[in-house]
Amino acid sequence: MLIAIVDDDPTLRITLRHFLHKWHTEKKLSLEMLEFDNGDDFLASCNQNNYDIVFMDIFMEKKNGIETASEMRLSRKDTILIFLTSSMDHMPDAFSVHAYGYLIKPLVPEKLYKIMNDVHGLLHTDEKTLDITVVGKVDLTLRYSEILYINSDSNYCIIHCPEPCKSRGPFTALCEPLLMSPEFCIINRGILVNLSHVKDMTITDCLMDNGDSLPLNTKKASAIRQQYQSFKFENR
């Protein structure tokens, strides 16, 4: 889940980031947050990032939140927008840019957690899941978006997700259903990655958004990078 926080108050950004970090840690979900202190910088970032959720202050000095959201909606119709405000006066304007909701400052964590639970359910209503048997535990169901990558380890597979786990069985059998979805790609013998969690690809390596670096198959590196670029273009 990729979240943008757009607010010219640094204290508010720190507070919101803290609450969101606590929420996603308790939920064991992967989450990335980017911060902006003005609308123009945020809008420029939309060319490279497809945000799932945007928290935006209505009252900002340069370009206010309503103006910024109006420009965002020209290219990002489905992004979930949540306004941050100290006053209810501009709420009619918030509806004009299809805001999902709003939070009153100062932030109350319980209200934030409720709206995040609602949004999370909305985002993952139709998401595919993978059922696996975890070594030493009961069966586990993982959402595709939670899986960063999978690597084979002798007779086991290591599934790297918010809470990494190990499953006994062949790599090919585990990865077969995942490869039917465009976000998954085998980059080397015994290594499958979720392209949604790839930060960059070099000539020799695949850099994941958790900081791990994985080797590319040298003979297929060009085709793998092309698949990655196509995926990024289609999901921009």
**Low-pLDDT sequence parts:** none
Strand order across the biggest sheet?
2-1-3-4-5
Classify the beta-strand content into a percent band: 25-35%
Structural class: alpha/beta
Count of helical segments?
Answer: 7
* Rg, alpha carbons: 20 Å
Please count the beta strands (DSSP E, at least 2 residues each).
15
For the report, how would you describe the main beta sheet?
5 strands, parallel
Average pLDDT number: 89
Percent helix: 25-40%
Multimerization state: single chain
How far is it from the N-terminal to the C-terminal residue, by CA? Answer: 14 Å
Order of helices and strands: EHEHEHEHEHEEEEEHEEEEEH
Which overall shape is indicated by the principal axes computed on the Cα atoms? elongated
Description:
With 236 residues, the chain is of the alpha/beta class. The chain has helices spanning 10-27, 39-45, 65-72, 91-96, 109-123, 171-175, 221-234, and strands spanning 2-6, 32-36, 53-57, 80-85, 101-104, 129-133, 139-143, 149-153, 156-160, 165-168, 184-188, 191-194, 198-201, 205-208, 213-215. The protein is elongated and about 60 Å long.
What brief labels describe this structure?
236 residues; alpha/beta; 5-stranded parallel sheet; 5-stranded antiparallel sheet; 7 helices; 15 strands; 29% strand; elongated
In short:
The chain is α/β, with parallel strands linked by helices.
Explain the layout of strands and helices.
Elements: E1 2-6, H1 10-27, E2 32-36, H2 39-45, E3 53-57, H3 65-72, E4 80-85, H4 91-96, E5 101-104, H5 109-123, E6 129-133, E7 139-143, E8 149-153, E9 156-160, E10 165-168, H6 171-175, E11 184-188, E12 191-194, E13 198-201, E14 205-208, E15 213-215, H7 221-234
Parallel strand pairs: 1-2, 1-3, 3-4, 4-5
Antiparallel strand pairs: 6-7, 8-9, 8-12, 9-10, 11-12, 13-14, 14-15
Helix pairs in contact: 2-3
